[in-house]
UniProtKB/TrEMBL annotation:
Presence of keyword Metal-binding: yes
Domain of life (superkingdom): Bacteria
Upper taxonomic lineage: Bacteria, Pseudomonadati, Pseudomonadota, Gammaproteobacteria, Alteromonadales
GO molecular function, one term: lyase activity
Keywords attached to this entry: Lyase, Metal-binding
Annotated protein name in UniProt: Hydroxymethylglutaryl-CoA lyase
Residue ranges of domain Pyruvate carboxyltransferase in the record: 6-273
UniProt cross-references to SUPFAM superfamilies, sorted A to Z: Aldolase
Assigned protein family: Belongs to the HMG-CoA lyase family.
Gene3D superfamilies xref list: Aldolase class I
Length: 298
């Protein structure tokens, strides 16, 4: 049973651009965000309040939120790994924040410099402060099927971390296949374990397309009752702490697939393609999206 509607969480300006070698200035990022919103995306992860020494590409996040003209009905979100990040996000009126944990200890250490348990100690004041201000918090779990340092990850480990984020107060848990190694079999097994402790309507899926499995994994998730999908325009990016991981599944490819199945995402594919070409030209590279390449060649 497939859903009739799917919500797309556009992570290109954050997950995409955080891992592009070429730095994009705040004005071009804002132009990209505006084009994405104009294409009908209603949730855009627009920045990340992390250490600029760790992720220099996100150093413009305050400037972006300061200069951005927000459109009604659109959520402009950002990552906030600790109170320092949360305070910085609040000072520029970020609409919604996300904390990001991992199902793998080694990845947690490499990515946010602490263990899974320590990460919860950093996250819980963030969630508390956010909820007291009426700010919603999204929770990510990375390495939900595989870890670049530990290999296969047990579905139960993912379920455990996801449940703790839910209990902490996150309204939605985004399950990240950070290195794109999942297949419908491993993704299904992982979702079965997570759905036993987190309701499907509070889950999202976040696939990187390293092994070309993202669309089929999304289809698997949709058929298991998940209706929120993270993706990045032009298939941008990757994760700086997951060597060799390619970008997120391209939003263009997701929208094309949903359109073909008669599932409403509210996104105008033509305008989305324009947004993808805009940022790809700034990066001097071709969009990773197959749909985008096919349509541009026309
Ligand atoms: P730390 O070293 O443990 O933190 O880093 P600390 O509190 O000890 O502070 C160390 C230094 O960082 C200090 O500066 C702090 O001021 C500064 P110094 O005194 O050395 O000059 N600092 C900060 N600066 C700006 N904003 C902050 C902040 N916090 C501390 N919020 C920290 C901890 C998390 C900050 C660090 O490890 C970091 O920035 N990591 C980067 C993590 C990251 O952005 N990863 C990519 C995003 S996650 C992802 O892509 C996966 C996802 O897409 C899902 C998936 O695909 O699986 C979400
Ligand atoms: Mg990611």
């Amino acid at each position: 049973q497939l859903p009739k509607k799917v919500k797309i969480v556009e992570v290109g300006p954050r997950d995409g651009l955080q891992n592009e070698k070429q730095l994009i200035d705040a004005n071009n990022k804002i132009a990209l965000i505006n084009k994405l919103v104009d294409a009908g995306l209603t949730y855009v992860e627009s920045g990340s309040f992390v250490s600029p020494k760790w992720v220099p590409q996100m150093a413009t996040s305050s400037e972006i939120f300061e200069k951005l003209t927000k459109h009604k009905g659109v959520t402009y979100a950002a990552l906030t790994p600790n109170m320092k990040g949360f305070d910085a996000a609040m000072s520029v009126n970020v609409d919604e924040v996300a904390i990001f944990g991992a199902a793998s200890q080694s990845f947690s250490q490499k990515n946010i410099n602490c263990s899974i348990e320590e990460s919860r100690e950093r996250f819980s004041p963030v969630v508390e402060a956010a909820l007291s201000k009426g700010i919603k918090v999204r929770g990510y779990v990375s390495c939900v099927v595989g870890c670049p340092y530990e290999g296969d990850i047990a579905p139960e480990a993912v379920a455990n971390v996801a449940k703790k984020l839910l209990d902490m107060g996150c309204y939605e848990i985004s399950l990240g296949d950070t290195i794109g190694v999942g297949t419908p079999a491993s993704v299904s097994a992982m979702l079965d374990a997570v759905k036993a402790v987190v309701p499907a309507n509070q889950l999202a899926v976040h696939f990187h397309d390293t092994y070309g499995q993202a669309l089929t994994n999304i289809y698997t998730a949709l058929s298991q009752g998940i209706t929120v999908v993270d993706s990045a325009v032009a298939g941008l990016g990757g994760c700086p702490y997951a060597k060799g991981a390619s970008g997120n599944v391209a939003t263009e490819d997701v929208v094309y697939m949903l359109n073909g199945m008669g599932i409403d995402s509210g996104v105008d594919l033509d305008k989305l393609l324009e947004a993808g070409w805009f940022i790809s030209d700034k990066l001097n590279q071709a969009p990773v999206s197959k749909v985008s390449q096919a349509m541009r060649a026309k």
